[in-house]
Task: structure prediction
Amino acid sequence: MVEIFIGLEIHIQLMTRSKVFCSCEMISGEEPNTRICPVCMGYPGVLPAVNEQALFLSYLMGSALNCTLAQKTWFDRKNYFYPDMTKNYQISQFSSPVGRGGWMDYLEKGELKRVHIHDIHLEEDAGKMVHQGNFSLLDYNRAGSSLLEIVTEPELTSPEAAEVFLQSFRSLVRCLRACDGNMETGSLRCDANVSVNSLGMGLGTKVEIKNLNSSRFVRKALEYEVRRQSRLMQAGKPVIQETRLWNEQSGKTESMRTKEEAKDYRYFPEPDIPPFVPSEAFLNRVTSSLTELPAARELRYIREYGLTEETAHYLAEERERAEYFEELISSGTEVAAAAAWIKGELAKLQGRYAFSLSDGTLPPQAVTTVVRMTGTEELTVQQAKQVLELMVQRGIVQPEEVIAQEGFKKAEDDGELKEIISKIVAEHLNAAEQIRDGNMKAVGYLMGMVMKETRQSADPRTARRLLLEEIGCKQEE
Ligand code: ADP
Ligand code: ZN
Ligand code: MG
Result:
């Protein structure tokens, strides 16, 4: 039996308007090398100044991750050479990170799990290198962006756990609006460290895997690496401590550099940036910006509302969705109905019309009204769905307005419906004949017309019964 140890080093690009030590705008997709200045390009004689919003979001993350927050924090220079960084050192934190010794709770299949956080520290991002054949291009727009690194303890015990943890972490940073959490664009990046050892023997020799830009790749790379290291162990061969890269094409990790080549960063305090001592007001602002985190929400939805793990997860995962769900409930929709409408019709409409639940397109009170009307049979479910769609299409927020425009009302009685049906049958004697001959396909054709004529207000079962009676066909399919 082997034991698996996984620790993650996660980088998130903080959602600050400008970069961390200069006033360049943090924006992606711009013409290369247009969002740069002497500070982020590391010209001699420039003076960096720390972005307070970056510090705020760092402390907010530290607080959400239950870290001990630094009463005094400062920056260090991490010295190394690489072309994506013009200064030959990165301004980072080494001896006084913003937060230390925290933890994050997350849910794996409805079960609460905890991973400890070693530390979180604020630093600047490097530029981007684009390799093209035998030369490389450099884009420094990203250089100097606010980057927060979160280092976990090696407590994750399987590749699946690492994937689930990372997804939960992503949900947390989005909830706090600290980072957009997008792994494809590199706003959230992850290096995974993994070792295996015989059961009870403690940590093994770790391998670090870089270049993982989706949580699925994190799992796949770790699965491969666990197999590779287990095989070495069984063959009595040592695992070499090294950095490896995930190759999605081959589905393998490949050696990038070994420990011997590891650099000594010669950290020393950044002399140009004074230490930061958070004021009481600053720390109060941090505390009051915390909200219920996705994992806690999910657990509450399961326990308080009796929702399934899957539904609770879906609703709690995105803050907007969770808040919308709660507003539906507080405006009078029942829990099960609120969950079903969000997962079903609202998700469908959002996909079709690309609006967000919080942008006022479909205010929760309006949805509550529509859902209530299905309960009192003022609207059929089909009509209710139509009302919501028309509200979106027409930019109307009052369901009553759409209902009036469409003339939706409950079919008064069977008499009215009978009249409509006999008119339709009289106009389609051929179809009626076919039905009497046993061709039940024609029933659907006539039913379509009945529903259209009644503007979907007829109860389909009643309509079908009356239609068959009218045709003189008692037999059911
Ligand atoms: P380094 O000094 O090489 O950066 P750290 O001790 O700072 O290593 O740890 C970096 C990451 O590697 C952390 O996420 C940590 O949890 C993880 N880690 C450390 N040792 C091991 C190990 N033996 N097996 C698996 N992961 C490990
Ligand atoms: Zn700049
Ligand atoms: Mg380290």
